[in-house]
Amino acid sequence: MDAHLTGARMMNMESQEAQITQAASWLKSSSRVLCITGAGISADSGLPTYRGIGGLYTDGPTDDGIPIEQALSGEMLAVRPEVTWKYLSQIEAACRGAGHNDAHLALARLEAHLEVCILTQNIDGFHHQAGSENVIEIHGCFDQLQCMGCGHARKVKDYTGLSIPPVCQRCGKFERPNVVLFGEMLPVQALNRLYAELDKGFDLVMTIGTTSVFPYIAGPVLQAAQKGVPTIEINPGETEVSHCVQLRMRQRAAVVLPQIVARYSA
Which of 4, 139, 152, 243 is catalytic? Predict the structure, then answer.
């Protein structure tokens, strides 16, 4: 590993100003950047994180007496769609009315200067809303519904006025959101896009607001670190990749990302 990367590990102990300077420096020497985002990047939009600080389901089982992961599983949707939809609608209601924030806008501004690929676990659509174009929504998006019977798809603004669970107007079967539930396979098209981007290689990998518990989220960070590619983590808390990143910034994305991009553009 390059000496400057090894030395950068010490940045965690230095000032945020020095960290911003280092992050901007790496951006200036990069042509392709991978940004991996999770619930934390949308927290400043008023969205609750999933299980983190201020999360919707931090206190054990749901009011149905089952773990939220079981309630939001493909298996539960198949046998008791009303249970899965109950919690899907709670999450959607908590997100309703929110929009992209300064962190999303900062990443969108980078696309004017660099090849930026955003791999997001979020299903809120905020990256597209902010203007980013090369976005891989690995878990899908809330605003797209698909019939579990005939396959008819439609787009909705929000879940206001929907019956829970919603019913297809064409065949009468239940609809589902085009999102990946627990126990389900990731969408092949999104995975193929990710593999193609990874094959091209990146000069910098940034992980932003995600605990990186899934292998396909942590993997690109771990692989980059092993290859000596600069890696940055922006997250107030400890994550599965905190131990291996070269630059760890314990700060909210909406606070520090605009500063990094402004320093880069200066």
Answer: 139
Sequence-distant (6+) residues with CB within 8 A of 122 are 37, 38, 39, 41, 42, 137, 139
CB neighbours (10 Å) of residue 99?
Answer: 15
- Structure confidence at residue 73 (pLDDT): 94
In contact, 114 and 33? CB cutoff 8 Å: yes
Interval 227-232 mean pLDDT: 97
Contact 143, 155 (CB under 8 A): yes
Task: Answer whether residue 1 shows pLDDT above 60.
Answer: no
Alpha-helical regions (H) of the chain: 3-8, 16-28, 39-42, 68-71, 74-79, 81-95, 102-110, 126-130, 188-200, 215-227, 253-265
139 is catalytic: yes
- In this prediction, residue 58 carries a pLDDT of 55
Please give the structure tokens belonging to residue 113.
Answer: 């200067």
